[in-house]
Write a structure and sequence with these properties.
The protein is mainly β.
Length: about 775
């Protein structure tokens, strides 16, 4: 350590050091020199005592230098050992704050006690057989009767320190391990404040100006400061000892140190008896204090904490305070990792933990401790027994765990929030029973089960729940509940059984709500069960007419649709079909096959495209149900398919014109006539007549149903037989207002799959043969 000097004694010291004793000198000269030395010593003692009253005899370490601090020693020999007391005053009127004692517990051994009043710190280490033991004890006082003991493993040659244990004492009792308790926020104020530059609650001797402050007074003061440490029964030392491997070198060294501390009280008492007999002299070259090397306490850390980081392991942590389960401790697991995020193993590292509770406008520190990581995986686990928390957390408060690498000055704490659980229901979740497939008037096989939890996700017991079947049709409820559980059990669950009622428009739902202490349902704390209508194995068999639909014996199956099939049909198409269940046709009570008819017009009108006949794209209906009535049960069922309505009508007509040209003679009145029907995308048709231009009209048009095939009649032969052919019809175009009344003209047209159109004259007695006598052509432009 730096040497300090007493500048105002420089001249005296120089004169003293120039004195020498020559063994060859005559006895007279020796006697004269002895008298001279005695006078000088006396003079120097008087001078020293005048400069440092009450400090008794003073040893001066070496030549002073201007501006350096004084460096003074007092020394007493006792029994087989010695005790030296060292102070370092800053100036002539200051007795100093740095006190160091070297004493012998056994002959040839030394124990060192260093006191730093400014930092409220005591450091202790010991020597055996001329070698310092690899252990260092540091005691920090934070308040009256509150101490922190830190135990270090130390390599004196390399000056490397490694913290191996820590304990915090309050009123002589251990309250946890925390290596940096003094840095904790919001520490409680203590009733007894420390004296200036002194330790908490211990009266410090008077300053330099009082002649009553002798060395003996300071030894008494130091004895009081060390009192809680030298007491061999204190629980702090016992706790540190229990954490060491008892057969290790470290444990042996700790035992020696503890023994030396136990002798300190006796040593101080003996020293007090002999201090008045101090000799006053400069330190000789052979004096142990002259050669003594103090420890500066500036060793390097065994692990470079700057290259390490802490990672919380959430899957292993329990960050919930639950007032209903205080036997479950709060737990945070963290892992020390290097800069490559690999766990630090083999070398334990200490981690500071602090648990704070912000509640009712106050900040409460619930726990402070420092824990060592596991050598095997670099992990450390902080536990807080929830039953022993002095201030019980309440809902709405903030409970936080702070953590950081210990002894890393200036490092900011990381933190993890702890959820404060309560008995207020916050969530209802569906555990099982939802989405079951069941038929009408059938009891569900599995019960409907829910779980009630608070906002922390903890299950709640004895919460009242209300079950209710929700109607889907005019308030009529057909389903029933049975064996209903209205209070949650220890697992936070409740259940009921549901029986489906008679068929309705769609399945009912079952609502479950949490009930508050006032007996009313809690808003938004509810859940809803749904179920699927059981589907039977139906297929739809479409029929094709070869001649006409009046003769059903001439029909044959052309395609079969199953649930999930992608089906394409034409708009304005009549679809006759049968239903198969498990491959067998459904039959009426008389045994005949059940026959059904659907129109694509009806399909469109029941979809979102209702009243929008003409679409620019095909109509796609996903998961569309072809509904029908079961001929035996009377229940409505369906085959669910993906349906595409191919809108050929729109693509064929809208935006185009149908032109009809007259072809008869003047007698029939249509020679030179030409009618045009312009179909617009707004659903209207514009009709013009060449012969009667004033009769032009804009009217609406619509499609209507038509059987799949229509007969096209020709002229009769000589036997009067009228031939015909069957052509597939896509749709029928109808103008409700009709075109201008022209002989032989119809108000409707048939649209065939080949893109041709033909006036529909059959209903008024005009066949194709007769019609062609009057009209030359019908063209789509």
């Amino acid at each position: 350590m730096k040497k300090r000097y007493l500048s105002f004694l420089a001249v005296g010291v120089v004169l003293f050091l120039m004195l020498s004793c020559d063994k060859k000198e005559v006895a007279g000269e020796k006697e004269e020199e002895s008298k001279t030395e005695e006078l000088e010593q006396k003079s120097r003692a008087e001078f020293n005592n005048k400069q440092m009253p009450g400090v008794a005899n003073v040893f001066i370490s070496d030549f002073p230098k201007v501006g350096d601090k004084q460096q003074l020693y007092t020394k007493a020999d006792y029994l087989t050992g010695h005790l030296a007391y060292y102070i370092s005053p800053i100036s002539g009127d200051d007795i100093g704050t740095d006190h160091r004692i070297v004493f012998s517990a056994n002959k040839g051994d030394q124990c060192v006690v260093e006191l730093d009043e400014k930092e409220q710190l005591i450091r202790l280490y010991t020597e055996r057989e001329g070698k310092r033991l690899p252990i260092l004890l540091q005691v920090k006082q934070h308040a009256l009767k509150e101490f922190e003991l830190r135990l270090y493993r130390i390599d004196w040659d390399k000056k490397v320190e490694e913290l191996v244990g820590s304990v915090y004492l309050r009123n002589g009792e251990t309250v946890g391990a925390y290596q940096s308790a003094a840095r904790a926020a919001s520490t409680q104020q203590k009733a007894a404040a420390k004296d200036t530059l002194g330790f908490y609650g211990i009266k410090r001797p008077s300053g330099q100006t009082s002649k009553a402050a002798a060395t003996g007074d300071f030894l008494v003061y130091i004895s009081q400061v060390l009192g809680p440490i030298v007491d061999t029964s204190n629980k702090g030392m016992g706790t540190l000892s229990s954490n060491l491997e008892q057969t290790s070198v470290l444990a042996d060294a700790f035992g020696f140190l503890w023994y030396d501390l136990g002798t300190l009280t006796t040593v101080l008492g003996d020293a007090g008896a002999v201090f008045p007999a101090f000799r006053t002299d400069p330190l000789s070259t052979s004096d142990p204090l002259k050669r003594f090397q103090w420890y500066d306490g500036q060793g390097a850390l065994a692990v470079n904490l700057k290259d390490l980081q802490l990672s919380a392991i959430m899957k292993s942590s329990v960050l919930t305070y639950d007032e209903t389960a205080l036997n479950i401790p709060i737990k945070l697991v963290v892992q020390v990792e290097d800069k490559n995020k690999k766990p630090l193993i083999g070398n334990p590292v200490f981690v500071d933990f602090r648990v704070e509770l912000e509640q009712d406008g106050k900040n409460n520190i619930l726990s402070q401790q420092t824990l060592s990581t596991d050598k095997a995986n670099g992990m450390v686990e902080m536990l807080l027994n929830a039953q022993q928390i002095a201030v019980k957390p309440k809902a709405g408060s903030v409970l936080t765990i702070f953590y950081r690498l210990s002894a890393h000055e200036g490092t900011v704490f990381d933190k993890q929030q702890v959820i404060i659980a309560d008995q207020q229901p916050a969530h209802i979740t569906l555990v099982s029973g939802n989405g079951q497939e069941v038929d009408w008037e059938e009891k569900m096989k599995a019960p409907l089960v829910v779980k009630v939890t608070n906002k922390a996700g903890q299950v709640l017991k004895n919460v009242r729940v209300k079950w209710k079947v929700q109607s889907v049709s005019w308030g009529i409820i057909v389903g029933t509940l049975s064996d209903t559980q209205e209070l949650t059990d220890a697992n936070g669950t409740a259940k009921t059984y549901y029986t489906v009622g008679k068929q309705q428009e769609k399945p009912e739902t079952v609502l479950v709500q949490a009930i508050g202490t006032d007996g009313q349902p809690l808003p938004q704390v509810s859940a809803t069960f749904t179920y699927k209508q059981k589907r039977r194995n139906f297929t739809l068999v479409q029929l094709k007419f070869e001649v006409d639909r009046t003769d059903m014996s001439k029909t044959s199956v052309i395609r079969e649709w199953k649930s999930g099939d992608q089906v394409t049909i034409m708009e304005n198409e009549m679809i006759p079909f049968n239903i198969k269940e498990n491959g067998v046709l459904l039959r009426l009570p008389d045994g005949s096959p059940a026959h059904f008819i659907h129109s694509t017009k009806g399909i469109v009108q029941t979809s979102k495209y209702a009243n929008r006949t003409f679409q620019s794209k095909d109509i796609v209906l996903n998961n569309w149900g072809v509904t029908f009535s079961d001929p035996l049960t009377g229940r409505m069922d369906s085959v669910v398919i993906n349906l595409t309505v191919s809108n050929q009508l729109y693509r064929t007509f809208v935006g185009k014109t149908v032109r009809v040209e007259g072809g008869g003679n003047p007698i029939h009145g249509n020679t030179g006539e030409m009618l045009t029907f312009a179909y617009r995308s707004d659903g209207k048709v514009e009709i013009k007549s060449k012969t009667y231009p004033t009769h032009n009209v804009i009217t609406t048009f619509a499609t209507h149903h038509m059987d799949t095939y229509a007969p096209i009649y020709g002229c009769s032969d000589k036997n009067g037989v009228m031939p015909y052919t069957m052509k597939r019809v896509v749709g029928v175009i109808t103008s409700p207002a009709g075109p201008p009344m022209v002989y032989g003209m119809s108000a409707t047209f048939l649209l065939f799959t080949d893109g041709t159109v033909r006036p529909n004259t059959l209903g008024i007695g005009f066949d194709a043969c007769t019609f062609n006598e009057y009209w030359k052509s019908v063209k789509l432009e």
